[in-house]
Amino acid sequence: MDEAANEQDVIGEEHWTHKGDVKLFLWEKYLGKPGNKKGTVLFVHGSSMASQPTFDLHVEGRPFSSAMNYFALQGYDTWCVDMEGYGRSTKDRDITCDIANGADDLAAASAYIEKTRGAGPLLVYGISSGALRAALFAERHPERVKRLALDAFVWTGEGSPTLEQRRKKLPQFMASKRRPIDYAFVQSIFSRDHPGCAEDKVVDAFAEAITALDDSMPNGTYIDMCSKLPLVDPDRITVPTLIMRGQYDGIAGFEDLVKFFEKLPNPDKQFTVMAGISHASFQQKNYMLAYHVLAGFFDQPKSVYREG
């Protein structure tokens, strides 16, 4: 980290690209000049919030509430993208915006980043359904992914109490393309698994940032996670991979993840359980632990010895 720089020195720049007729909003943050320095990170958001509230949050008195600021000061060029149906990206198509559609968005975003900054392959982090999007993207385009981090990931859904409860509402989700959200819904993300893992002021700031951009969210990822798992084949994810699981996460079943991890073919792989963290790791009291784990994986030295 540049000891002489601070968060106020990080520069933000908006970008737009297209996926056919769909406009996708991208947000870039960097220190100094843009471009591929230590590496380029692409952050991928989850089912119920756009990208900037998740990865570029500001909370008074809480340093580095913005993961993008933290990693920019570590020497990375950082990006996030609003999936179709979220935030500032196109929301008017009559589709549910499922996991596969999100992987298409990442293909468009990564092509734009490579063209604009000459960056690639990318360091990719996804959380929850964003981890599913990121994993499917890596399965389809391994040449574009240098290292892959999957946080709050779900494979078959086995051992997930949150998904078990969510499946009861599957007919409701399938009956419409979008579902309403409000402050109470955002608060429920932090109370359902293990109350107390996040500060109230962080939940408030997160909810305010989310609802400033959206009052409803696409149903596609919920439908996929409730009725179509598994969506990703671990045998086809050939890039170095990190599995991150919060201790109390109700989405990511531990045994389910272990079985997924065992099948990953690349020997450069890690599985980390983060103590005191529930589902939304970057908004938890222990968020710096999540950053530390991710930064260590992204900055891991290249293997000198490889058999064969």
From TrEMBL:
One of its GO terms (cellular component) is membrane. The keyword Hydrolase applies. SUPFAM superfamilies: alpha/beta-Hydrolases. Keywords: Hydrolase. Pfam families: Hydrolase_4. InterPro entries: AB_hydrolase_1, AB_hydrolase_fold, AB_hydrolase_sf, Hydrolase_4. GO terms for molecular function: hydrolase activity. Residues 63-282 form the Serine aminopeptidase S33 domain. It comes from the Bacteria. PANTHER family: HYDROLASE, PUTATIVE (AFU_ORTHOLOGUE AFUA_2G14860)-RELATED, MONOACYLGLYCEROL LIPASE. This is Alpha/beta hydrolase. It comes from Pelagibius litoralis.
